[in-house]
Amino acid sequence: MAQNDLHALLLTQRVWSPEVTRLPPFDPETAPPTPLPLFTSWFAEAVDAGQPEPHTMTLATVDAEGRPDARIVMLHGADPDGWSFATHTTSRKGRALDAHPYAALTFYWPVLGRQVRVRGPVAAAPEEESQADLHARSTGALAAALTGHQSEELASADELRRASAAAWDRARENPALPAPTWTLYRLRPDTVEFFQGAADRAHVRLEYRSTGFGWSRGLLWP
Ligand SMILES: Cc1cc2nc3c(=O)[nH]c(=O)nc-3n(C[C@H](O)[C@H](O)[C@H](O)COP(=O)(O)O)c2cc1C
């Protein structure tokens, strides 16, 4: 596609068209004093509104050289200990988290014009907990974890097909097989920001800030 076509196409695109998006009012005065209940209710509302894959999020990290990177991962849970996700310690993001154990998560739920941003230090869960979390998931999740080598250079698509087929066999034969580098991480938030889009663009941004003992809250200009 020529550059001009792309530019023209971009100009035809809209965010929050009324056919796909409902923009609920959000009064920050009525928000709970801590971010977790609000996240939980916004997540349930995204599910109810038919948001595809609401449990996927962007995980942003910073590597040893101070360079940022970001990719999609799945949310495994959110509770008073933090927001959790799982990956290989040996992957690019795993190595970045080793160098800088601090990350940002971003959720985008366009059916409701909502974004949630969570930032804070990240810690790996104990080995047994990581493996239990993996074994509670699907055979495909275990097969993918057992395939391993995440982020390493791949010589050919054939090599992956063979490794993946062998991993599926092992996962089916032994659903309790450990995937040693697969690790559950928890991000304990310093800040959690809730963004509610508004048709007149006077969007609401409510940021919760951890004080170490509890939470303070404030609005941000959109
Ligand atoms: C919808 C979706 C969900 C994903 N979930 C995960 C996940 O939970 N864990 C994971 O390690 N990679 C997941 N990935 C793959 C990552 O986006 C990424 O390609 C991979 O983890 C390698 O990233 P890295 O090289 O930055 O470490 C997912 C990708 C997509 C598109």
TrEMBL record:
Keywords: Flavoprotein, FMN, Oxidoreductase
Family in the record: Belongs to the pyridoxamine 5'-phosphate oxidase family.
High-level lineage: Bacteria, Bacillati, Actinomycetota, Actinomycetes, Kitasatosporales
Name of protein: Pyridoxal 5'-phosphate synthase
Residue span, Pyridoxamine 5'-phosphate oxidase N-terminal domain: 45-162
Alphabetized GO MF terms: FMN binding; pyridoxamine phosphate oxidase activity
Keyword rRNA processing belongs to the record: no
Source organism of this protein record: Streptomyces griseofuscus
One Pfam short name: PNP_phzG_C
Cofactor(s) annotated in UniProt: FMN
Binding site for FMN: 92-93, 115, 150-151, 205
GO biological process annotation, one example: pyridoxine biosynthetic process
Cofactor binding mode and count: Binds 1 FMN per subunit.
Domain of life: Bacteria
Limits of the Pyridoxine 5'-phosphate oxidase dimerisation C-terminal domain: 182-222
InterPro entries, per the entry: Pyridox_Oxase, Pyridox_Oxase_N, Pyridoxamine_oxidase_dimer_C, Split_barrel_FMN-bd
